[in-house]
Design brief:
606 residues; alpha+beta; Beta-galactosidase, Chain A, domain 5; 5-stranded antiparallel β-sheet; Chondroitin_lyas; Heparinase II/III N-terminus; Hepar_II_III_N; lyase activity
Length: 606
């Protein structure tokens, strides 16, 4: 890879962020970062205390950890006992917790994806058990205290994999705070729980600048944990509480200003990571209100309102799903509803009530679970049905017509792109995802799987000369970030809605895509030029029985027909999609192959 290409990527990432990461790594290596000198004492008494009998049995609850272990929102193991906290939940391989966390490599080959170890230590189960306790189940509270004691005994402070990541520590803090909110024990916190929170904040604070340097939800998560945990411990006069609380508040304000665009787009270009960010700020706001702390700035609230509307407008959300856009690590920060992992409605409803003072979804559905559990009133006014929208800061166009939705992704990269998905097109019909994105599967799988899911081949777009749209410089970094050089803004009429965008890549290949959505018809015109050998356009289809005949493919209800004056061939093959982290399932893919530039028209009839 050329030095010029790496230098350009470094400039794109920003000198300040590079300096933050460099000084963090140097401080760890030289032993001058104070995180390497930490010690902590955590008692093994009860962390949560019994509560009076409650009438909250009828509230919808998350039962995913009842008599079982649930990982990444889908992978179930039947078990009653505590998890093995150092075990890969899929393979059973373990990693010891007998060395300082900074000695553990980021991608240890012997354990596989370290997220399979971290998953149980995100404390989702704490929320499930506390919901049962609120419904009058005293055994669930005892079980939660037992598991927490086991976790502490198995994970000595600052030793082992579960202390390695500041964001993982932050998720634990936020889930413990959420549990305290459910029990209304913010001001009745046991000494052991205070010690546990303090040990985590002491781990997070010295390394937060590394998290900030990532320009993603690591920074928002760690800021929220410091703000919530610091203000919590301030109630008990902890000597570092005010400093932690102030540090967290300042970075929450900064990250909202820097990472959330005016149109609500977030730096990670991902639907599920957008939800993580939104839930993080929602929890910080609920916590702030519970302690009557000073309000956040108007700018923060404005950006969060826009971010709420962004997720509300994504295809599939109103039906309990969401476009499989961008990376996804299985995180769900506020797991209060018993809904599917991919259902964003509870998060959108909560954020809408907090930051817009409006209902996103009417009626008494599962989407109201967070409001009910957190004792928040439901606003009277509603947002109204989502319409066609262009989010130009982030590079998204959402087209809606009758019961059909289309999402076109175009390059507006102010932050590092996580996937080579320029001009990807998602299509939804009455809540069914007909043309589908690939997801991310895993951050530490085989090189082939990592390359496939982050690369161009797992998206509904054009691929030139058997390469990705951008060169991969490292596991999480592409070079030569694409820029939109052709744009026709959203045009809406009574009979149709249309949008067009295009780019030219670093080797001179160009792609212009025009999308029009009308009655029972989606039309896509792809203009391809500048490639040397060949080009492929892929349409990743809803799983089912599709038949290819001539230039058309159909499943009996939906058909795609492709025409062009240029020569091309079609083939129907098998691809993969990952709707949940570390889950991969097959789906049919229609591939158009050509060696000639030209305009290729796809018509989808429904």
């Amino acid at each position: 890879m050329s030095l010029i290409m790496k230098a350009k990527a470094a400039l794109d990432l920003g000198a300040v962020n590079l300096w933050r990461v460099f000084t963090y790594r140097l401080g760890i290596k030289l032993g001058i970062n104070p995180v390497k000198r930490l010690t902590a004492i955590i008692g093994d008494d009860d962390f949560f205390i019994p509560i009076a009998a409650s009438a909250r049995k009828l509230l919808p609850a998350n039962d995913s950890w009842n008599s079982q272990h649930c990982f990444f929102g889908w992978y179930i193991k039947q078990a009653e006992d505590t998890p093995n906290w150092q075990q890969n939940c899929f393979t059973g391989k373990t990693i010891t917790a007998d060395q300082p966390w900074w000695h553990i490599p980021d991608f240890a080959a012997d354990i596989g994806d370290i997220k399979t170890v971290w998953e149980a230590s995100r404390f989702d189960w704490v929320i499930c058990f506390m919901q049962q306790a609120c419904a009058g189940d005293t055994a669930a509270l005892e079980k939660c205290n037992k598991w927490l004691r086991d976790w502490i005994n198995s994970n000595p402070a600052y030793l082992g994999p579960n202390w390695k990541c500041g964001q993982e520590a932050s998720i634990r803090v936020m889930h413990l705070a959420l549990a305290a909110l459910l029990l209304q024990q913010q001001k009745l916190t046991t000494t052991a729980l205070q010690q546990l929170i303090a040990a985590h904040l002491a781990r997070i604070a010295p390394t937060i600048r590394y998290a900030i340097g990532q320009d993603n939800n690591h920074g928002t998560s760690e800021a929220a944990a410091l703000f919530i945990g610091g203000s919590w411990l301030a109630l008990y006069n902890h000597p570092d509480a005010d400093r932690w609380q102030k540090l967290g508040r300042n970075w929450l304000e900064n990250r909202a200003k820097c990472l959330i665009e005016h149109d609500g787009s977030f730096s990670q270009y991902s639907a599920t990571y957008h939800r993580v960010m939104l839930d993080t700020y929602a929890l910080a706001e609920v916590w702030r209100r519970s302690l009557s702390l000073p309000v956040f700035s108007t700018k923060l609230q404005t950006r969060l309102a826009a971010a709420t509307l962004w997720l509300y407008n994504m295809p599939g959300v109103a039906f309990g799903d969401v476009a499989n856009l961008g990376a996804n690590d299985g995180a769900r920060l506020i797991p209060l509803a018993g809904s599917d992992y991919r259902d964003c409605r509870p998060s959108v409803q909560l954020a809408s009530a907090l930051f817009l003072n409006k209902q996103a979804f009417a009626g008494d559905g599962i989407w109201n679970a967070p409001l009910k559990w957190l004792r928040l009133p439901s606003p009277v006014a509603g947002l109204g049905a989502p319409d066609s929208q262009q989010f130009d800061n982030g590079g998204y166009a959402v087209l809606r017509h009758n019961n059909a939705e289309a999402l076109l992704r175009y390059p507006r990269f102010c932050f590092r792109p996580g996937q080579a998905d320029a001009l990807h097109l998602d299509f939804w019909l009455a809540g069914v995802n007909v043309l589908r994105d690939g997801g991310s599967y895993s951050y530490n799988s085989t090189p082939e799987m990592v390359s496939y899911f982050s690369g161009t081949a797992s998206h509904n777009t054009a691929q030139f000369d058997n390469r990705d749209q951008m060169p991969k410089l490292s596991r999480f970094l592409f070079g030569e970030w694409l820029k939109t050089n052709y744009l026709q803004p959203l045009r809406i009429s009574d009979s149709s809605v249309s949008f067009a965008a295009g780019y030219t890549d670093y080797k001179g290949a160009s792609h212009k895509r025009e999308v029009m959505l009308a009655d029972n018809l989606l039309t896509v015109n792809d203009e391809l030029a500048g490639f040397k050998l060949n080009a492929v356009i892929r349409w990743r289809l809803l799983p089912g029985d599709w038949v290819l005949e001539g230039n058309s493919v159909t499943n009996g209800q939906i058909s795609l027909n492709i025409t062009s004056e240029s020569e091309f061939t079609l083939r129907l093959c098998e691809g993969q999609e990952s709707r949940y982290y570390l889950q991969s399932t097959p789906l049919p893919v229609l591939e158009l192959h050509t060696t000639e530039p030209g305009i290729f028209t796809t018509e989808l009839f429904f």
